Amino acid sequence: MPLGYQVVFRAEDDRILAPDVGRRRAWSRALLEHGGPHGLFGFGLGDTHGHAVLACERPAVSRFIHDLRSSLRSRLGVRLVDPSVRSIDDTWHAENALGYVHRQDVHHGVGADPFREGTSLPDLLGLRPRGLWLAERVRALLPRVKRTDLLAHWGIEGLEPAFCLRQLADAGAAAIAVSRLGGRGADVVQARRACVAAAPRDLSAADLAAALGVATRTVRHCRGEPADPTLVRAVRLQMGLRALVAPPEQGTFVRDGATFDYSHASV
After folding, report:
1. Cβ(171)–Cβ(242) under 8 Å?
2. Tens digits of residue pLDDT in 42-89
3. In this predicted model, what pLDDT tens digit does every residue of 116-137 receive, in sequence order?
């Protein structure tokens, strides 16, 4: 009996599945919401297709496909053809499949997703707390896969928290896999609190409010409420990632322990 299965999704018209960051995050939310009960342990997104790797029996794969196709049609506005399903024969095969799905963007020469938001890498490395269960599953299923191996899938050797005011709002949105921190949803409210908590205390409420696109009183309210430490760390890791792979014009990054003249901070 196979250890699991690799599923490859394509649109009926072979269009690009998620051509912008918002839809890449929507793809990831869908995978995380539907993959848990069906043995999902990794996923990735190329241009015209996406991959999911599952440690389960064949009937669970069929249920996963049914649920995900319906969800992606709603979230991405695409109809998917019947996906191809390939067996994963053993642990060695599963390790290689995980690395393969994480590198889809580079493998196909697209380069459209430098932060790997359409993959499970942010979940496995603490940048997206809603998918922390994936890290636990990979540790149990593939104990030889280490943090350094996952960082290598990203093409980096290390990852540390950082801070950049210009990137704060997007880092918060990425940490909860939404296109932007708009609205009053519970996860957005928590992400805003985490963004405020991730910022240095000497940064003015006005600068933070401008960066997050909210009123100054909202920032003051966030400062008076507890923030989820796991989400705070995820936001700061998102900025740490951007410090490594973002182009220079994306903003000035501050490593932990460094100093920064916040009087020159700008959104």
Report:
1. yes
2. 999 988 889 999 999 999 999 999 999 999 999 998 889 999 999 999
3. 999 999 999 999 999 999 999 9
Write out the two tokens for 107: 């493998």
Tokens 């990632």, residue? 241
Q: Which residue has the tokens 């792979």?
A: 245
Whether the full predicted model's pTM is greater than 0.85, yes or no, is yes
